[in-house]
């Protein structure tokens, strides 16, 4: 295992995620592995690239001590192949900072 670089705690979470990859607006499906105030971990079948900007729609039950909204946007911080799937870390960004595609909104 590598050195932990997270600034905040992640909580185990299982849920479905619909991931829209910008600017192409490709949509892929995945599973949430963990969730925290600054990001989340995903498992996806289709590869993501480090630095990709994504909009994520979650379908999860409530998580104790963490408010889970339905939609997030962020940047892919890392990607690793794990067998037949990819594990990816997403770092959240707000709608005004970090989004290179300012014409796109989470709605």
According to CATH, the homologous superfamily is predicted glycosyltransferase like domains
Q: Give the overall average pLDDT.
A: 79
Unreliable stretches (pLDDT < 50, length at least 5) are 97-107
Total domain modules? 1
Structural category is mainly beta
Order of helices and strands: EEEEEE
Distance between the termini: 38 Å
The helical percent reads under 10%
Q: Which oligomeric form is depicted?
A: single chain
Strands across the major sheet, in which order? 1-2-3-6-5-4
> What global shape is seen?
globular
Radius of gyration equals: 13 Å
Q: How many extended strands?
A: 6
Largest sheet: 6 strands, antiparallel, barrel
Supply the number of helical segments: 0
Which strand-content bin applies to the residues? Answer: over 45%
